[in-house]
Write a structure and sequence with these properties.
9 helices; MetI-like fold; mainly alpha; disordered N terminus
Length: 292
C-alpha cells in the first residue's frame, strides 16, 4: 500500500524576510530599553569610588587605568564617575521635555485637526515660528531664566512641539475622513468622545514612535545647551559640557575626557532610535492582526 507523501509547504521569501526583520526590531526594542534603563539606574544608584565633583582624585589628565577606568579630566576628576552621574541629569531632563512636547503635540494636533480657517491660521503661525533660529531662541530663553532646568524642558517642547503638532494633525485629518469615524459621528458621538474613543487609539503607534524619536532629539538639545554653557552648568556633570571640556585636550592626545561621554551620548540616542523602530514594528503588527 503506497503512502501518500506529505505536501511540501513553501514559505514565501518575503514572509521570511519580514519575520526576521520584525524579530530583529523586537530585539532592538528590548536592547534599547535595557541600555536606557541601565544607564538611568546606574546614574541614580550605582555606588562610585569617587564623587563626580570631587577634585584631585588622581593625577590631572591621567589615562584610563585600574584606578580610574575612564581616566581623569583637567582638574583631576574621575571621568567614569562623571559620565555615570551625567545620565541621572541629562536623561530625566530630556524625558521631561519629551513628555511636555508629547502633550503639546497630541493636544495641539488634535485641536487643529480640522479644515477650518482658524486651524489654517494656526498652522501658518507654526510655519512662521519654525522659520526662526530655534536654537538661538532656546539659548536666549534658558539664559534669561538663569539656567532654569524647567525652562530647558520648555525649550525642548518649543523645538519638537511644532513638528509633533503637524504630524498628529495630518494623521488625524486622514482618520476623520474614514468610514468608522463618519459612522460614529452620524450616531451622535461628540467631538471629545470621538477623540478619546477613536482618534487617540488609532494614533497610538504614531504617538509612541514619535515620542521615542523626540526623546533622541531632546537629549541632543540638552547636550547642545550644556556644550554651549547653558542649562546644566558645571560642576553638575553633563555629557555636553564634558565633551566641550574634553575637546580642548584632543589636540594634545588626551582623548578619554571627550570620548567616553560622547560614547554614552551616542548609546542613548541610538537606543532611543532602536526603541522607536521596535515600537513601530510591534504596533503595526498588532494592528494588522486586529479583526476588522
Amino acid at each position: 500500500m503506497a503512502i501518500a507523501a506529505e505536501p511540501t509547504i513553501i514559505r514565501p521569501v518575503g514572509a521570511q524576510t519580514t519575520g526576521t526583520r520584525e524579530w530583529t526590531k523586537s530585539v532592538g526594542l528590548i536592547a534599547g530599553l535595557v541600555v536606557l534603563g541601565g544607564l538611568l539606574l546606574m546614574g541614580w544608584f550605582l555606588p562610585l569610588r569617587y564623587g563626580p565633583n570631587a577634585l584631585g582624585t588622581g593625577k590631572v589628565l591621567q589615562g584610563p587605568s585600574a584606578q580610574h577606568w575612564f581616566g581623569t579630566n583637567q582638574v583631576g576628576q574621575d571621568v567614569f564617575a562623571r559620565t555615570i552621574r551625567a545620565a541621572s541629569t541629562d536623561l530625566p531632563l530630556a524625558l521631561e521635555g519629551t513628555a511636555l512636547a508629547t502633550i503639546v503635540g497630541v493636544v495641539g494636533g488634535l485641536a487643529v485637526s480640522t479644515r477650518s480657517r482658524a486651524s489654517e491660521w494656526v498652522m501658518r503661525g507654526l510655519d512662521a515660528f519654525q522659520a526662526l533660529p530655534l536654537l538661538i531662541v532656546t539659548i536666549a530663553l534658558v539664559v534669561i531664566s538663569n539656567n532654569s532646568l524647567t525652562m530647558v524642558a520648555i525649550a525642548i517642547s518649543l523645538v519638537s512641539g511644532p513638528f509633533y503638532i503637524r504630524l498628529v494633525r495630518s494623521q488625524a485629518l486622514a482618520l476623520r475622513e474614514s468610514r468608522f469615524v463618519e459612522a460614529s459621528r452620524a450616531a451622535g458621538t461628540g467631538s471629545f468622545r470621538l477623540m478619546i474613543r477613536h482618534m487617540i487609539p488609532n494614533l497610538r503607534a504614531l504617538i509612541f514612535t514619535q515620542t521615542a524619536n523626540t526623546a533622541a532629539v531632546a537629549l541632543l538639545v540638552v547636550a547642545a545647551l550644556s556644550f554651549l554653557g547653558v542649562g546644566t552648568v558645571p560642576p553638575t556633570a553633563s555629557w555636553g559640557s564634558m565633551i566641550k571640556d574634553g575637546s580642548e585636550q584632543l589636540v594634545t592626545g588626551q582623548w578619554w575626557d571627550a570620548a567616553f561621554p560622547g560614547i554614552a551620548l551616542f548609546l542613548c540616542i541610538f537606543s532611543f532610535n532602536l526603541v522607536a523602530d521596535g515600537l513601530r514594528a510591534r504596533l503595526a503588527r498588532s494592528r494588522a492582526l486586529e479583526p476588522e
